[in-house]
Amino acid sequence: MPHTEFRSEILRHLTYTLGKEAEMATRYDWRMALSYTVRDRITESWHDAMRTSRDGRMKRVYYLSMEFLIGRLLEDAVVNLRLDKQAEAAMLDLGVDYDAVVATEPDAALGNGGLGRLAACFLESLSTIGTPAIGYGIRYEHGLFRQTFENGRQMEEPEDWLSQRHAWEFERPDVAFEIGFGGEVHEENGRCIWTPAEHVIASAHDTPVVGWQGSWSNTLRLWEARAAHAFDLAAFNAGRYVAAAEPGTLARTISRVLYPDDTTEQGKELRLKQEYFFTAASLRDILARFEREHDDIALLPEKVAIQLNDTHPAIAGPELVRLLHDERGIEFNASVDLARRCLNYTNHTLLPEALERWSEGLMGRLLPRHLALIARIDEWHARLNPGRTVTALEHGQVKMGELSFIMANRVNGVSALHTELMKKTVFSELHALHPERIVNQTNGVTPRRWVLSSNPRLSALTTDRIGEGWVDDLEQLSRLEDHVDDPAFLDAYSAAKRANKEDLAAWVKDSLGEKIDPAAMFDIQIKRLHEYKRQHLNIIETVALWQEIRDNPNADWTPRVKIFAGKAAPGYVFAKEIIHLINDVGRVLNADSVTSKFLKVIYPPNYNVTLAERLIPAADLSEQISTAGKEASGTGNMKFALNGALTVGTLDGANVEIRERVGADNFFLFGMTAEEVVERRRVENHAARAVADDPRLARALEAIRSGVFSPEEPDRYHGVVANVTGPDYFLVSSDFSDYWRAQREVDAAYRDTAAWTRAAALNTARSGWFSSDRTIRGYMADIWDIRSSRAFATAAE
Ligand code: Z16
To answer: Which of 65, 66, 115 to mutate to test the pocket of ligand 1 (most atoms within 8 A of CB)?
Structure first.
């Protein structure tokens, strides 16, 4: 279609949907008009896909997740529909700056980090592959908080993505369910009846998720909470205006905010309400759809595959049993069996503080029937497995990990190492009882967003050399290996990286006022702040390097820019101190006229998907330095490798598999293994010993401790230093020397530009396996038992 037709569609939406004249239109208006125009193109393929899956009675995947970190949607849709040339040309014709318009879209930040972003990549891959799927979550009014820095300290402000209209969603006033809480359970003719004390309405909002080339689209259905009777007219008429609106306000609280915790779990009543709210609404929707399409409930496991993204929707087990047994009268054992064959559970962490547990008291108050059913599920499991010791309900607590495992057909880990550790640690007993249940599905990322759209230069070069088949068959990147000894290819590869770095440097100058040299190595650590991820190891090494440069400023140092980005959970004091320290160190180093040409520290605030898209294509070095055994997988690590950054990292999570694939020569390994970590913790005073053995570490810590970076408050970092030299649970001190050694190898390697570029290109060429398309195919084969996708759709049941 010519871009002139595209242009008139945009104008039509501007005029009739937005009600604006072109002369008066703002960038917001243009973005909305463009978004509606693009959305129109998705809608037909979306309806076709839904009709195909309905008419073909196809099995569907239902991905239940508290988080979907989808970011911006316009550019993604434009790229997947291959409308980029047309859209740009049409906007140019209209005299509108396309990039500026795209940049006005707020990120949909409905997630904390990796778990939520994984869900978003999975939905896109499911659409690209053409597998019928619905993602279910919560339509949070406020996504993850907006981070600012005040004198280097993190401040949190509410995020407000819905203050503008959300161009991509369709409200479904016809799809609403009443979700109950509290109340009583009584028996009537041998059947349990739950009479909740309170009800909230879950109402659906759908966003189409379009796959590569637009041939299939799936649905992201997000539930909004509202009151059954939002307004009390009697109170209003009596002049009690605030009280009159109260029922609505209370109910809406449930979908008001995303909990800002990555990994650490907190037992809050509202959180449990959110979990039950979206899980119950989703299951009712799933059963209603099933019952429209099939008339035999025994077919449920053949037609419905439910994936629980972590334990957050774990109440799905007892809820599905309740819907089948209490509400449909199916015998209890048969109900459990049916439910269990539909449900699967992905575990994303082994950190004990992150495994959800609810007190029996709270569960009994909020979900009395479910508490009773959990006890019965435990009995059922015990009967089938005599001699077992594991139960979901124990010592007055409901353990959601155990409940999820017991109620799941398959349980999966997210990297090979993580899956093995799951078998050996948290789920060892359940694994012994059910040795076939745990499977591994190493995470992946969508190449459409994380290469094609975010790194157009690398994409153009790749397509020029190997054709564009790589976009939905990422292992074709291996064909780039034929080119890694071609100087012309290497020149083009490094020119693309260089141009990406220049773009980033310009953005840093504009937005932070700091000048960085695109010739320097861009060394990037971007992820949530957590002690196990060890941003403090990175900044301590930065301090030690700064001290050495100052000692010997005329030596031939390899220039580096250390870039950090990431948010700390608002209540995580230690993580916030690390942020403050990084900013304080940056302030001193960037102002040091002796060292700043060799070393700078940059920390842009408010890390989100959009910022990741900007940073990753410009990276030379990817920091993946978690304490071994703690990072379940990581997915940023994959995005960096694909975009030609070399990794400095530990043998943790998917780093292990990345290194196996890209080759040990193209990966800077350091640190203890997961087993060595466990051993080292048993050494008395391990941290103090490490500090005593490494004068560099001792000197860097002393500078931090004595206030070199916080002269206005010299003891500001006493706590941080006391931790790292004392208990040091995450072994920052014990891993420091080897990290330093690896970093100096990085320095030396970076100086050989040709060899570095070749290694970077090999990272790209050998990372094709980390596509989320591969991960989804793995789930289809090993978890969901789905062999059909759009290519195999049949009309027969
Ligand atoms: C999360 O993002 C992750 C784990 C978790 O328990 C909670 C949240 Cl919000 C992350 C893991 O830390 C990361 O290693 C992994 O790559 C990601 O989930 C996706 O599996």
So the answer is: 115
Please say if the pLDDT value at position 301 is more than 70: yes
- Is the distance from CB of 209 to CB of 127 less than 8 angstroms? yes
Q: Which one from 117, 530, 639, 790 is the annotated catalytic residue? A: 639
Query: Distance (Å, rounded) from C-alpha 521 to C-alpha 478?
Result: 26
Indicate whether 418 and 559 sit together in one domain: no
Model pTM score: 0.98
Assess whether 374 and 522 both reside in one domain. no
Judge if 39 and 125 occupy the same domain: no
* Rounded CA separation 630/617 (Å): 26
State whether 114 and 26 are in the same domain. Answer: no
The C-alpha atoms of residue 378 and residue 146 are separated, in whole angstroms, by: 42
Residue 266: is it exposed, middle or buried by C-beta count within 10 angstroms (0-12/13-18/19+)? exposed
Task: Report yes or no: 691 and 733 within 8 Å, Cβ to Cβ.
Answer: yes
What pLDDT, on the 0 to 100 scale, is given for residue 747? Answer: 98
Q: How far is the CA of 272 from the centre of ligand 1 (A)?
A: 19
Joined tokens for residue 340: 């269990």
Does residue 131 line the site of ligand 1, with CB under 6 A?
A: no
Instruction: Kindly state whether residue 260 falls inside one of the protein's structural domains.
Output: yes
Spacing, Cα 388 to ligand 1 middle (Å): 30
Structural contact between residues 512 and 604, judged by C-beta atoms closer than 8 angstroms: yes
Cα–Cα distances in angstroms (integers) from residue 364 to residues 38, 327, 601, 788, in the given order: 48, 20, 51, 42
Q: Are residues 612 and 692 in the same domain?
A: yes
Q: What is the mean pLDDT of residues 72-85?
A: 96
How many other CB atoms are there within 10 angstroms of residue 578's CB atom? 25
Strand partners, 201: 178, 226
3-state secondary structure (DSSP) of residue 393: strand
Q: Highest mean pLDDT: which of 228-232, 241-245, 613-617?
A: 613-617
Q: How many other C-beta atoms lie within 10 A of the C-beta of residue 715?
A: 11
Q: What digits encode the pLDDT tens for the residues 102-158?
A: 999 999 999 999 999 999 999 999 999 999 999 999 999 999 999 999 999 999 999
Is the ipTM above a cut-off of 0.95? yes
Q: How far is CA 686 from the centre of its chain?
A: 34
Place of tokens 């209890």: 332
Helices 316-325 and 368-384: crossing angle in degrees, nearest 10, is 90
Half-sphere exposure of 215 (CA within 13 A, CB side): 12
Residues 102 and 113 in one domain: no
- Whether pLDDT at 231 is above 90: no
193 and 239 part of one domain: yes
Query: Domain containing 753 — which CATH number?
Result: 3.40.50.2000
Task: Residue 230: count other Cβ atoms within 10 Å of its Cβ.
Answer: 16
Q: Give the model confidence (pLDDT) of 332-375 as tens digits.
A: 999 999 999 999 999 999 998 889 999 999 999 999 999 999 99
- Condensed to tens digits (0 to 9), the pLDDT of residues 691-745 reads 999 999 999 999 999 999 999 999 999 999 999 999 999 999 999 999 999 999 9
Give the active site residue among 325, 381, 528, 630.
Answer: 528
Kindly give the number of the ligand 1 atom that is closest to the alpha carbon of 631: 14
Domains of the chain: total: 3
Full residue range of the structural domain in which residue 1 is found: 1-56+78-106
What is the average pLDDT across 243-259?
92
Percent of the chain whose pLDDT exceeds 70: 99
Q: Are residues 88 and 111 in the same domain?
A: no
Question: What letters, b where the CB count within 10 A reaches 16 and e where it falls short, cover 730-742?
Answer: bbbbbbbeebbeb
Alpha-carbon span 348 to 263, nearest angstrom: 9
The span from the CA of 580 to the CA of 785, in Å, is 48
Asked, for residue 495, whether it belongs to a domain, the answer is no
Give the model confidence (pLDDT) of 46-73 as tens digits. 999 999 999 999 999 999 999 999 999 9
Q: What is the pLDDT of residue 1?
A: 66
